[in-house]
Design a protein that fits this description.
Length: about 350
């Protein structure tokens, strides 16, 4: 346990280092303080002995260790009262947006406010259902089928036939598909089973079978999606010497499977979670810090909001922005799913 004075000194060191990016000395800490440089030097030494601060070299001041950042972050997460300095507001205009657009807006705003890499995961496939199917005749031999999902997603596909299509058959298909498929989940096995109706004539069954690939398309496009913004900021971190695994992280972003698995761990809680340096088990993140929170419906989390950046990130700003983004997305998806 730290004494009250040690806690204050540690917080000042972390705050000064986050702002300035250079080791913090006792003289700078004593300015405006009731304690003299010798008292502060003593406390700095105690904090270093406890592994919370490091001493780059003899004549330099101290910098926070991962344990020091963790102590600082835990105090931020535990104290959400009015004593905390106000953070820039994350103002999102999500009303009347489609899900895809809302996710993209959130990711971009989060990256801009925090000046970090922002990643948001969309709700999984089994939370979407078919809202409407349109079968449109574009030319005598060309049809376009449009599938609209409950979360606002739109998938369309063109179909070209060898012979002109009977308009009556196209109209029947539209009515039949809406009657049979509206309200069915995209991940449900019964979706394709409902297209295999033994009461249909051979002509009707053959026509529906020709159109069925559009439902495979919409299911595949609705797989868990990552929205990413601020990747170029990684290059700036690299130039500052804060990131040593840049290539590994970029590869992780490209393949995304491992990153999805990391973010899924944050779906169980609406509280903001922070993982610092080696607390991350993915090698690409071990020199970085990740701040994340789940969002979703009252009874179920649907996705995660997160930012990734150097250990020397503005933790108060990142925590506040992630918390606000998760809250606003939760409000948005609750309204979207109420409409289903």
């Amino acid at each position: 346990m730290l004494t009250e004075r040690q806690e204050l000194v540690l917080r000042r060191v972390v705050e000064e280092y986050l702002q300035q990016g250079s080791p913090v000395g006792s003289r700078a800490l004593s300015a405006g303080s009731a304690w003299g440089p010798s008292t502060i030097r003593h406390e700095l030494a105690n904090l270093e002995d406890q592994g919370l601060l490091a001493h780059p070299h003899t004549s330099a001041g101290r910098i926070p260790t991962e344990a020091g950042y963790r102590y600082f972050v835990d105090s931020l997460l535990a104290n959400r009262g009015p004593s905390q300095p106000p953070q820039p507001s994350l103002s999102l205009s999500l009303v009347r947006r489609e899900l895809d657009e809302a996710m993209q807006i959130t990711t971009e705003a989060l990256s801009q406010v925090t000046d970090l890499l922002a990643i948001v995961t969309a709700p999984p496939i089994d939370t979407s259902t078919i809202r409407r199917v349109e079968v449109l005749s574009l030319q005598p031999q060309v049809l376009m089928v449009v599938v609209i999902t409950s979360t606002g997603g739109v998938s369309k596909r063109l179909f070209t036939f060898e012979r002109p299509i009977d308009p009556g058959l196209a109209d029947w298909a539209a009515s039949y598909l809406n009657e049979r498929l509206v309200g069915i989940g995209l991940g449900a096995r019964m979706l394709h089973q409902r297209l295999r109706d033994p009461s249909l004539s051979e002509r009707e069954a053959t026509f529906l079978n020709a159109l069925s690939p559009v439902f495979t398309d919409v299911a595949e496009s609705a797989q868990e999606t990552l929205y990413v913004d601020g990747t170029s900021r990684l290059l700036r971190f690299e130039q500052q010497g804060d990131v040593s695994e840049l290539n590994t992280l970029v590869e992780m972003l490209e393949h995304r499977v491992n990153l999805l698995s990391v973010l899924r761990r944050y779906l169980g809680s609406r509280e903001v979670l922070v993982r610092i340096g080696t607390e991350n088990d993915q090698p690409a993140l071990r020199s970085l810090a990740l701040v994340a929170s789940g969002y979703g419906l009252p009874q179920r989390n649907l996705g995660a909001v997160s930012v990734i950046g150097p250990l020397r990130m503005d933790y108060p700003r990142a925590i506040s922005a992630v918390r606000e983004a998760a809250a606003q997305l939760s409000t948005f998806v609750a309204e979207v799913y109420d409409e289903r």
